[in-house]
Amino acid sequence: MAYEIKVPALGESIVEATVARWLKQTGEPVAAGEPVVELETDKVNLEVAADQGGVMGPITKGEGETVAIGDLLGTVEPGDAAAAPPPPAQEAPKAAPATPAPQAEATAADSAGVNGAASATPTAQRIAAEHNLDLSKVTGSGPGGRIIKEDVLRSVAPANPSSAPAATIAPP
User: Fold this and answer.
1) DSSP state of 22
2) Is 136 helix (H, G, I), strand (E, B) or coil?
3) Listed residue (34, 32, 39) closest to 11, CA to CA
4) pLDDT band (50, 70, 90) for residue 22
5) Phi, psi of 158 (to 5 degrees)
6) How far apart are the C-alpha atoms of 20 and 38, rounded to whole Å?
7) By 3-state DSSP, what share of the chain in percent is helix, strand and coil, each rounded to 5?
8) Would you call 139 exposed, middle or buried from its count of C-beta atoms within 10 A (0-12, 13-18, 19+)?
9) Which residues have C-beta within 8 Å of that of residue 60, sequence separation ≥ 6?
10) What is the mean pLDDT of residues 96-105?
11) pLDDT reading at 105 higher than 50
């Protein structure tokens, strides 16, 4: 019987999260206790581990999707890690060296800032990267001046033409 991977309790007053990235893909072997997906909120980042070993089954929530506590993220099917096809296992090490570098950069960015900017949450960093936004030009409104998702969205929003006419009407 398949083991369901669900969104765990994330902390007091946190009711939803965003699927940041999948650490395991369908068909890859999974060991008990091994992280399979990374969730992020403005307050906490969390790796969700599989309680049972097997083979990663269908993924029901994709990267970037918003999920609530208790939502089904995916399943781990019963099976032996040796039963998994070799090509995905060979591809994982090739991707692994590239993956830790961004994590290290994100960790450094969280503590020291990006290009002299205040630190930013992973969600804010991801959205800024999607919009090619330089975080050093964003003012943080989070605790200790940390750049949060809303700060990045505000920096991207001025490009919205609907805000310009309101500014020209207000002066008279």
Assistant:
1) E
2) helix
3) 39
4) very high
5) -55, -20
6) 5
7) 35, 25, 40
8) exposed
9) 72, 73, 74, 75
10) 39
11) no
